């Protein structure tokens, strides 16, 4: 039997590692491709600035890649480290770790492409502000990576925690749910944060004088667009750290798995929506700096309402964990 | 582990509740975001009408949220009635 | 990790029923109220043309929030509701900030606090709606666009309470649990101060503002 568990853990680790870098590669590839296409169209507009655009394209792509580098790290750990196999819960844990990081890297990779692309185009439009644009792009795409860092934290906890003393039913549902909650909910927030940062780079290129308010409101918008990822992290932490009594039916495990899925999938839409809402605000603050107060307020209210379905998803997840 | 019919139905109801609310949250989230972005654009063009535009945005968002609320209702029904 | 989700309760048996008081929420919200009272007294005690620090702070608060209410509700309603908005914002922001002091907890971490404030906002908004439009026009809105939609419209209105109060609760509770777990994992080295700054001060202020703004906006939607 001992041998048997080890085989299953290895199987889950290899499967998780493959899925981690497999899913994780999607986002970065899309983001970098978008950046490259924007850079090409920018260079064709003004070939004299090709050097600057090329440099900032490479920097932007390097940041967009960091999420999938995280996924690669998790995949390497899953493939090559010796994971102690003491119970079948570990099987779920290593698989969930791979899924969490794989899904979690998609959003940040796609998102970081938007500011990089907008910065390349903006640089050609306003060559004099290329320094400010690069700084803005760096800040924006660095903040985009936060959701993937959440997913990384969850997958490290899942790999290195000892779940040996926990009953297999229903803990495996909780563990798998935790990975899905953290990973899937990071997709929306990553893409949303990227949309905001892209709008801010575009706005600075249009109106270089407004660089300070635009950057501030961009950071505000990104912080709020990250709420779904934070709620996903919250549900994942509760699922990992709460102890569930052993059960001999399948319903509790399914409830915990369903709770993770609910928060994970439910976080995708609101994250993207909040990003779109905030990009509208940031874009128009750059054009109409006078009305920054009204615009910020409307943006905040709009984002808060766009978030409400994520809140309903959190309510259902908490009911599934604590009440049912 | 013996799997009985009632247990299986409970399990499916829980998983279904999670999926219902999760998938149902995607559309309204994106849609409400678009409404808010357009409201910001309109206020940027015409700041004098900010109050009217914010109210219109909220009413529109409330309508687009209704499908999310249907998912919430279905999820609660699955959890507590089935 | 045993602090996760622990609640201090005072349970008073009352002829077959039980009255349960969540002590944390009650004690800390009383502390917050006391702080606001002290601030109010200090800001208005020695008023003058050349204001002292406290008066400047108080004037800034009141005038900003008054202008905000006036934008959303119009001049005459702002007179009635600006004090409410002001008090709500100050209460919430202090409630969210008090948790960054060690050994104190945010009252908003307990669902009862945001939920009761949300229910309060809901009733005020609907009272305003009935008062300005008349009961008939108010009730008619529930049967738009068709007669059958009434139950769903009512659920939609009630869901606003859920979303407004759980938004605050989820953000503050989420921040608190994330700080707890990260402090536990890093043995409280390096990261917790930054997390406290982000979740306590920044997210706390933003969420207090969002809660206040949504209450105002719900009132204005009902009024028009």
Protein model, in words:
- The complex is a heterotrimer of chains A (324), B (82) and C (224).
- Chain A is an all-alpha fold and 324 residues long.
- Chain A has a single domain, classed as Four Helix Bundle (Hemerythrin (Met), subunit A) (Up-down Bundle), CATH 1.20.120.
- Chain A is built from 11 helices and no strands.
- Chain B is rod-shaped.
- The mean pLDDT of chain B is 89.
- With 224 residues, chain C is mainly alpha-helical.
- Chain C has a two-stranded antiparallel sheet with strand order 1-2.
- Chains in contact: A-B, A-C, B-C.
- At the A-B interface, helix 6, helix 9, helix 10 and helix 11 of A face helix 1 and helix 2 of B.
Largest sheet of chain C: 2 strands, antiparallel
Number of helices of chain C: 7
DSSP strand (E) fraction of chain A? under 5%
* CATH architecture type of chain A: Up-down Bundle
Q: Short description, anyone?
A:
The complex is a heterotrimer of chains A (324), B (82) and C (224). With 324 residues, chain A is mainly alpha-helical. Chain A has helices spanning 2-45, 50-80, 88-125, 130-144, 146-160, 168-206, 211-225, 227-241, 251-287, 292-306, 308-323.
Describe this protein with a few key phrases.
heterotrimer; A: 324 residues; mainly alpha; Four Helix Bundle (Hemerythrin (Met), subunit A); 11 helices; flat; C: 224 residues; two-stranded antiparallel sheet; 7 helices; 73% helix; globular
How would you summarize the topology of this molecule?
The complex is a heterotrimer of chains A (324), B (82) and C (224).
Chain A: H1 2-45, H2 50-80, H3 88-125, H4 130-144, H5 146-160, H6 168-206, H7 211-225, H8 227-241, H9 251-287, H10 292-306, H11 308-323
Helix pairs in contact in A: 1-2, 1-3, 2-3, 2-4, 2-5, 3-4, 3-5, 3-6, 4-6, 4-7, 5-6, 5-8, 6-7, 6-8, 6-9, 7-9, 7-10, 8-9, 8-11, 9-10, 9-11
Chain B: H1 5-45, H2 50-80
Helix pairs in contact in B: 1-2
Chain C: E1 9-14, E2 17-22, H1 23-45, H2 53-73, H3 75-97, H4 112-133, H5 135-140, H6 150-185, H7 191-223
Antiparallel strand pairs in C: 1-2
């Amino acid at each position: 039997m001992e041998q048997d568990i080890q085989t299953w853990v290895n199987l889950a680790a290899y499967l998780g590692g493959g899925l981690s870098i497999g899913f994780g590669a999607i986002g970065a590839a899309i983001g970098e491709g978008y950046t490259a296409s924007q850079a090409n169209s920018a260079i064709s507009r003004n070939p004299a600035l090709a050097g600057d655009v090329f440099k900032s394209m490479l920097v932007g792509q390097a940041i967009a890649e960091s999420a999938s580098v995280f996924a690669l790290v998790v995949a390497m750990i899953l493939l090559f480290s010796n994971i102690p196999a003491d119970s079948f819960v570990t099987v779920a844990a290593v698989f969930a770790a791979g899924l969490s990081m794989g899904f979690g890297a998609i959003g940040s990779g796609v998102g970081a492409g938007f500011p990089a692309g907008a910065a390349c185009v903006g640089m050609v439009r306003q060559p004099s502000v290329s320094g400010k644009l690069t700084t803005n792009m760096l800040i924006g795409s660095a903040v985009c990576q936060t959701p993937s860092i959440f997913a990384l934290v969850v997958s490290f906890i899942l790999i290195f925690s000892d779940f040996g003393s926990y009953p297999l039913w229903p803990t495996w549902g909780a563990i798998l749910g935790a990975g899905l909650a953290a990973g899937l909910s990071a997709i929306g927030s990553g893409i949303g944060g990227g949309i905001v940062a892209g709008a801010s780079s575009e706005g600075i290129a249009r109106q270089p004088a407004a660089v300070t308010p635009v950057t501030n409101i961009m950071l505000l918008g990104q912080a709020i667009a990250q709420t779904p990822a934070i709620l996903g992290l919250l549900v994942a932490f509760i699922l990992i750290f709460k102890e569930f009594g052993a059960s001999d039916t399948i319903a509790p495990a399914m409830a915990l798995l369903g709770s993770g899925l609910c928060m994970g999938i439910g976080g995708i839409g609101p994250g993207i929506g909040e990003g779109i809402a905030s990009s509208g605000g940031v874009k128009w603050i750059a054009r109409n700096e006078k009305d920054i107060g009204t615009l910020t307020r409307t943006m905040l209210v709009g984002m808060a309402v766009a978030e409400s379905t994520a809140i309903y998803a959190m309510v259902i997840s908490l009911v599934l964990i604590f009440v049912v | 582990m013996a799997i009985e019919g009632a247990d299986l139905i409970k399990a499916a109801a829980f998983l279904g509740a999670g999926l219902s609310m999760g998938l149902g949250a995607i559309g309204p989230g994106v849609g409400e975001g678009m409404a808010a972005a357009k409201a910001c654009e309109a206020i940027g063009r015409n700041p004098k009408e900010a109050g009217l535009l914010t109210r219109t945005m909220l009413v529109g968002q409330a309508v687009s949220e209704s499908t999310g609320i249907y998912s919430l209702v279905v999820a609660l029904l699955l959890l507590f009635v089935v | 990790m045993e602090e996760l989700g622990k609640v201090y309760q005072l349970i008073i048996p009352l002829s077959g029923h039980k009255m349960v008081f969540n002590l944390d929420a009650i004690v800390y919200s009383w502390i917050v109220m006391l702080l606001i009272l002290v601030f109010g007294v200090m800001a208005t005690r020695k008023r003058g043309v050349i204001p002292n620090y406290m008066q400047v702070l108080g004037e800034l608060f009141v005038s900003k929030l008054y202008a905000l209410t006036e934008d959303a509700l119009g001049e005459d309603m702002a007179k009635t509701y600006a004090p409410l908005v002001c008090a709500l914002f100050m209460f919430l922001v202090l409630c969210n900030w008090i948790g960054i002091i060690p050994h104190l907890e945010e009252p908003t971490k307990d669902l009862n606090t945001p939920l009761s404030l949300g229910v309060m906002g809901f009733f005020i908004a609907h009272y305003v709606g009935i008062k300005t439009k008349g009961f008939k026009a108010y009730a008619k809105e529930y049967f738009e666009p068709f007669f059958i939609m009434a139950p769903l419209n009512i659920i939609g209105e009630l869901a606003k309470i859920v979303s407004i109060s759980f938004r605050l609760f989820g953000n503050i509770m989420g921040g608190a649990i994330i700080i707890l777990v990260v402090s536990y994992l890093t043995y409280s080295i390096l990261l917790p101060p930054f997390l406290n700054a982000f979740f306590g001060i920044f997210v706390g202020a933003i969420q207090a503002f969002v809660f206040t703004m949504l209450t105002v906006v719900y009132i204005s939607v009902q009024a028009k």
